[in-house]
Amino acid sequence: MTAAQWLADYDETLARAAASARMASDRLRQVGGSAISPRGEVQVLVGASGALEDLRLTPAARTLEADQLARLILATAQQAQRAVGTQVVEIMTGYLGDGPALEFVKDHLPAEARPARDDDYFTNPPEITR
Q: Which of 2, 38, 50, 64 is deepest in the core (most CB within 10 A)?
């Protein structure tokens, strides 16, 4: 392989990497999540960062005590944030592949946005309220 061919191959590799990074960046900008509480009293929308962007309460929310409603809002927002985390992990898996870089991304997601793992259910079972 000549130096010119090596340089052309290297330029092509860099161009593919740049295109892949742009595509991942574009997809990450579109990330968002929404969730509705089990009985529909609360609906939330969160953006790519997991920040709350919209909150809707149905008339059924008025039947809840203030502390119950607060917990329900938080739980519903966390559900939407996990959806965002799942999307981020899927996008970054396509960009980075499995490996230490992807684990770094997962480890640095906010706790609320980390996708649930199979063993999380038993470590942190959901709170059941009536």
A: 50
| Whether the model pTM is above 0.70 | yes
Residue 121 structure tokens: 């259910």
Q: How many CB atoms lie within 10 A of CB 79?
A: 20
**Strands 33-36, 42-46: parallel, antiparallel or unpaired by DSSP?**
antiparallel
User: What's the full length of the chain, in residues?
Assistant: 130
**For residues 57 and 61, what is the distance between their CA atoms, to the nearest angstrom?**
6
Question: Which position has the token pair 């063993």?
Answer: 119
**Which pLDDT score is estimated for 127?**
59
In a domain, 75, yes or no: yes
Rounded to whole angstroms, how far apart are CA atoms 46 and 87? 12
Residue range of the domain that includes 62: 31-123
Number of domains in the chain: 1
Q: What is the pLDDT of residues 41-59, one digit of tens each?
A: 999 999 988 889 999 999 9
Q: What are phi and psi of 18, to 5 degrees?
A: -65, -40
**Per DSSP, what are the bridge partners of residue 56?**
43
